[in-house]
């Protein structure tokens, strides 16, 4: 308050907002402020004396040493009634002497935090963490610490209470709380709720990204990211938290178009299935539906994206899992492993695309530009580019190294739920599927809409090129699978077997088979050449949203 030259009613209001339990009158608060002003003035005077003594000629025979400045962490207590300022005992001083010790300690801690705060507007600099250089240490020979002493210091550091400034949305002032790096998420929520008198949501800024704190891992990231600077939280009422709303998508256009589609569907062949299958292993850890999965190039890891807002990388052999630090602020809708195997990319309903370091789970970059949910994201075969499709009705191609948009493709009239690169030419072409029931083929370098594939009667949920790029398979809310000739845009055949919306389809690496998954909880295998159903794989107990091919035999 002193550094920002806040006085009078504004100072009293800010003090009471941070210490609602305090019973100090206006004069009592004013006495604290005046005492701190005097203390600051004295420190400045002593500092000037020290500077003058340092500048004195070395040849001087006698130098009167200046009094050492008080420690930056020392706060003088309020003056006692026996020695009031000006020699007179005031009511304010009497009030101060009656404050409980615990409340005094809290007030002193608050004053220390305020005095150390830069003279800036907190509301406008909440996104930044100011850098504070530590005070210069006296010249001395450092004594090496033992390992036990180092461990003790680390333990002490994690136990030390830290001042955290909480900025509430819509408020010009902040409130201070105390916590340690050992504080759990549940404990932090209780501390904040007690301070604000109601349940609150917590968030902080990591560079330009706002990160919502919703578990112990993200809280640990908050303490880690803010190390060395002021700890600042953004808080908002839990009652105002945005509710998750699923998109309204077209399952069937009309009864007439449904009848036409059903009549053209190739019925599954009841012959003995040619493809044998067995379940190898199950993995668990996510707390909500898993929307996307992708294998690493070596097949020793895979990445998953979930409704629980997390991105996780799993190790196949030992089932170890690493959660990407910070995740997204909404459902994670898509993910993909880079061809180099060191990064993964994910997209979310929070409008953002993020690239992650597989080794340590840290965020490498945020790709910003979409203005609505990003349902689909994928690397090209070289890893140089990323394509994304969004509910803002655009497809974007990004530079994977710089995170910048190379091109924005417009043409769909409704949200886009799927997109992919062609494979044989390092991704010269892009396909996209939309709620407008169309699939579009783009030459993205030329920014050209080459052709639209018309045939589905419901939302196009996925589209995928064959490995030789001659074919494309698509799935839809209309319960059918379409196989397309990419060169002509004609439907080669339509396959039916799933009696529910079909979420995803992929080719095997030899293009001999097509695999599909749907809301009927099954995976089905189809012969590409004939359209015959070659296998029905059961085992999941709910909708299967996505498929990823590991090699010729594993999916």
Which keywords apply here?
single chain, 555 residues, four-stranded antiparallel beta sheet, 29 strands
What is the mean pLDDT? 80
The secondary structure category is alpha+beta
Beta-strand content: 25-35%
- Bin the helical content: 10-25%
The quaternary organization reads as: single chain
Number of helices: 8
- Described by the principal axes of the CA atoms, the overall outline is elongated
Structure characterization notes:
The chain has a five-stranded mixed sheet. Strands 6-7-8-9 form a four-stranded antiparallel sheet, with no helix packed on it. A four-stranded antiparallel sheet has the order 10-11-12-13, with no helix packed on it. It is of the alpha+beta class. The longest helix is centred in the first third of the chain and has 30 residues. The chain contains eight helices and 29 strands. The protein is elongated and about 90 Å long.
């Amino acid at each position: 308050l002193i550094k920002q030259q806040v006085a009078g009613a504004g100072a009293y209001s800010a003090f009471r907002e941070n210490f609602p339990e305090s019973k100090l009158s206006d004069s009592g608060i004013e006495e604290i402020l005046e005492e701190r002003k005097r203390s600051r003035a004295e420190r400045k005077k002593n500092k000037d004396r020290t500077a003058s003594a340092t500048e004195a000629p070395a040849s001087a025979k006698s130098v009167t040493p200046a009094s050492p400045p008080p420690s930056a962490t020392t706060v003088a207590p309020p003056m006692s009634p026996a020695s009031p300022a000006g020699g007179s005992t005031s009511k304010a001083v009497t009030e101060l002497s009656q404050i409980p010790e615990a409340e005094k300690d809290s007030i002193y801690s608050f004053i220390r935090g305020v005095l150390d705060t830069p003279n800036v507007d907190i509301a406008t600099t909440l996104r930044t963490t100011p850098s504070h250089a530590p005070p210069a240490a006296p010249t001395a020979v450092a004594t090496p610490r033992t390992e036990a002493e180092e461990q003790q210091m680390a333990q002490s550091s994690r136990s030390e209470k830290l001042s955290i400034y909480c900025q509430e949305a819509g408020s010009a002032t902040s409130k201070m709380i105390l916590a340690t790096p050992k504080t759990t998420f549940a404990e932090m929520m209780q501390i904040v709720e007690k301070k604000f008198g109601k349940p609150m949501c917590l968030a902080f800024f990591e560079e330009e990204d706002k990160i919502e704190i919703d578990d112990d891992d993200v809280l640990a990231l908050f303490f880690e990211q803010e190390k060395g600077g002021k700890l600042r939280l953004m808080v908002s009422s839990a009652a105002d938290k945005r509710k998750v709303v699923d998109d309204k998508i077209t399952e069937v256009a009309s009864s007439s178009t449904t009848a036409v589609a059903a009549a053209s569907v190739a019925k599954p062949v009841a012959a003995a299935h040619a493809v044998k299958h067995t379940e190898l292993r199950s993995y668990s850890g996510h707390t909500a539906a898993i929307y996307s999965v992708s294998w690493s190039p070596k097949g020793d890891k895979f990445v998953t994206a979930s409704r629980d807002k997390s991105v996780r990388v799993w190790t196949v052999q030992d089932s170890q899992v690493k959660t990407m630090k910070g995740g997204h602020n909404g459902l994670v809708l898509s993910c993909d492993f880079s061809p180099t195997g060191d990064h993964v990319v994910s997209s979310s309903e929070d409008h953002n695309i993020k690239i992650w370091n597989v080794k340590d789970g840290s965020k490498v970059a945020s790709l910003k530009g979409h203005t609505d949910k990003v349902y689909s994201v994928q690397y090209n075969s070289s890893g140089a580019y990323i394509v994304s499709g969004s509910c803002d009705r655009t497809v974007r191609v990004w530079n994977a190294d710089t995170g910048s948009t190379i091109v924005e493709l417009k043409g769909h009239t409704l949200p886009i739920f799927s997109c992919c690169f062609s494979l044989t030419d390092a991704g010269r072409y892009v396909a996209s599927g939309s709620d407008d029931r169309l699939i579009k083929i783009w030459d993205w370098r030329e920014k050209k809409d080459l052709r639209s594939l018309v045939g589905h009667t419901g939302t196009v949920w996925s589209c995928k090129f064959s490995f030789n790029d001659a074919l494309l398979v698509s799935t839809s809310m209309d319960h059918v699978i379409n196989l397309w000739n990419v060169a002509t845009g004609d439907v080669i055949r339509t396959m039916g077997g799933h009696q529910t919306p079909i979420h995803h389809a992929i080719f095997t690496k030899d293009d001999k088979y097509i695999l599909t998954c749907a809301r009927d909880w099954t995976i089905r295998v189809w012969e590409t050449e004939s359209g015959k159903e070659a296998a029905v794989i059961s085992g999941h107990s709910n909708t299967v949203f996505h498929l990823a091919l590991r090699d010729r035999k594993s999916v």
